[in-house]
């Protein structure tokens, strides 16, 4: 957990690298701060610091950035100005902003376009689902690049991007899948982690029908809302969620420090 409220004072500390990507700040042989770096499945290295003192934060950050090769990333709540300033002192700059949305589940069904069938979440066939996922990722990578998508935290083997087919609903046209949506159940509330339609089937209303399907199933289960993250530079996704009645509740900043 990264603290957003640093205490006053400057304790004398020793920064120790206790593992390949883990640093501790020690004062009188007690751990009073820690820094950790992890590699996400999409290949980006994300770093976090847990420290209550500003000086400890700065020393941990300095040790980390001098011993790791960039680029390095971190995520902060935009409302946390003090924490953001700490990362900026360490040479991190704004890369992008992600809006956090609360999406109500009771808006009602949306008809799929003619010829398209919506396959409910948990009923999609694994083979066609994996094939579509590979196509969608290749299309995104060839356009804006997958690094512009929200940072993924779901673990998976290399080349296997569908962790659990039961998390997905799909859209089928002429016997093949052309769209998908993934909903992950997390402790706070369900998260819509990915919604995508094959490039040659976009602007037909498939994404709206997929979103309505999963929101309807959540509503039937007594769940009043889901969450979603949308890159502010993605107007199509913004229009999709706001058209479903979603409203912004917060925003996160992805900061990056490029290598020397």
Describe the protein.
The chain has five helices and twelve strands. The protein is α+β, with helices and mostly antiparallel strands and 260 residues long. It has two domains: 14-91, Gcn5-related N-acetyltransferase (GNAT) (Aminopeptidase); 101-253, Aminopeptidase. Strands 1-2-3-4-5-12-6-11-10-9-8-7 form a twelve-stranded mixed beta sheet, with helices on both faces. The longest helix is centred in the middle third of the chain and has 17 residues, at 126-142. The chain starts with 13 loop residues before the first strand and ends with a strand. 30% of the residues are buried. The model is unreliable at 1-5 (pLDDT under 50).
- Determine the structural class based on helices, strands and strand pairing: alpha+beta
Number of DSSP helical runs:
5
Shape: elongated
Helix content bin = 10-25%
Radius of gyration: 21 Å
In total, the number of domains comes to: 2
Question: What is the topology, as strand order, of the major beta sheet?
Answer: 1-2-3-4-5-12-6-11-10-9-8-7
Question: How far apart lie the N and C ends?
Answer: 27 Å
Any low-confidence stretches, pLDDT <50, length ≥5? 1-5
In short:
This protein is of the alpha+beta class and 260 residues long. Helices cover 25% and strands 35% of the residues.
Write the layout of secondary structure elements.
Layout: E1 14-19, E2 22-27, E3 30-39, E4 45-51, H1 54-67, E5 72-77, H2 81-89, E6 93-104, E7 116-119, H3 126-142, E8 168-173, E9 176-184, E10 191-197, H4 206-220, E11 225-231, H5 235-243, E12 247-257
